[in-house]
Amino acid sequence: MVLCLWVSGLGAEAHPYRVDYVAEFEPSRGAAQVTIRWGDGADRLRRLELKTHERMSGFQTNVQSSRDGEYLVLESLRPGAELSYEVAIDRPRGDGVFDARITPQWAIWRGDDLVPAGKVRQLKDTEAEAFLTLKGPSGWTFKTPYEQ
Questions:
Q1: Share of the chain above pLDDT 70, in %
Q2: What long-range pairs does 60-69 form, CB within 8 A, spacing at least 24?
Q3: What's the pLDDT at 148?
Q4: What values do phi and psi take at 105, rounded to 5?
Q5: Distance set, CA 40 to CA 28, 58, 77, 109 (Å)
């Protein structure tokens, strides 16, 4: 199953850049593989600081990157820039209770567990056109509070 969503809040004077978020759920690994790709207009971004957490690992990117504490810092973004990483989905709270969980039949999680919050430095009047694609095993469906 693949679900695609589009979000844009562009004003009349805005200069857009495209960003695609793709999360592919892999129940056998208990994880999701996440890829973020920047498209046209990404050269308007100067610096992006993503607040990572302990369940994220294996960061790979094709742009200049560094660490600043819990932040992954990306610079020199351009069309074609890409970041990929893995997120462990299960988040036990104890006594068999979970904040997030993945099984072969289903998964439940918070979106901000997959895509980290960030700080962006960009040129004036720059706004994102963001697209989200969720992929799961055959037979999975996705339900979100967003328009599809």
A1: 90
A2: 60/84, 60/85
A3: 58
A4: -100, -25
A5: 35, 26, 11, 30
Q: What pTM value is reported for the model? A: 0.87
Give per-residue pLDDT as tens, 2-16: 444 545 555 567 889
DSSP 111: H
Contact 15, 126 (CB under 8 A): yes
Strands, sheet with 56-61, edge to edge from the N-terminal-most edge strand: 2-8, 126-135, 15-26, 31-38, 82-88, 56-61
Q: CB under 8 Å to 65, separation ≥6 — which residues?
A: 59, 72, 73, 74, 75, 83
Integer Cα distance of 100 and 54 in angstroms:
14
Q: Evaluate if residue 1 carries a pLDDT over 50.
A: no
- State how far the Cα of 34 lies from the Cα of 97, in Å rounded to an integer: 25
The β-bridge partners of 45 are 122
Helix (H, G, I), strand (E, B) or coil at 16: strand
